[in-house]
Amino acid sequence: MYPESLSQKVANGMTLQHRFAILSSLVMATSCLFTLVVTPATAKDNVWESSIVAFEEADKYAGYTKEAILFIGSSSIRLWQTLAEDMAPHPVINRGFGGATTVDVLHYAERIIASHEPRAIVLFVANDITGKVTDPSVEEAVERFKNFLRQVATKLPDVPAFVVAVTPTESRWKVWPTIRKLNRCLAQQCDSMPNVVFVPTEDIFLGSDGRPVGKLYRSDRLHLSSEGYACWTKRIRRYLDKRL
Length: 244
Known about the structure:
Rossmann fold; globular; 2 domains; single chain; about 240 residues; 5-stranded parallel β-sheet; about 10% strand; alpha/beta
């Protein structure tokens, strides 16, 4: 600490402009800290609550086997109508809900996983990077994925988790460079964690021209067509079958 006399000299020598600059820096630092603290709590409670309650009701009566593969994620999981057939003979549990983000999945993780002792967990969430001003940074998105995987490891330490890459789409092509960076970072994160596997898919969805192959998507140019799901099935099964 400065001697008192020197501290006073420094303080007295500050211009009003200098003091304002320091105050502004402190406010910005506090704001950043506040954002990091509250971001995980911004899950869309009211939007997804009915879906989660429906999952909990199904858990009571469906009689899922302990050997099932638990698929968790956003609408591409929810819309996977042939999931059971595509993963046979492995039994499956579909826990995809709407346009969920990793914040939503993380927020509901305990309730989604609580009643299950799955053989494996497959995670696909594609709504973090969409081109909106509210999108998290790549680093924030990776941290959320990591937090979810840590929850899985804590509750189900012997269960492997498979993180499926975010799919390239024409509807979000303007942010594909950012999504591609997210996929690279997720791959590195998965490689650094025990019992976690990253499933790359970019090569099966992009054509020779480097753009998404149209026939693999529905008319919205976002969700997969039946041909797209067939490609996804083949790739995901290749990674699952190596471990199960």
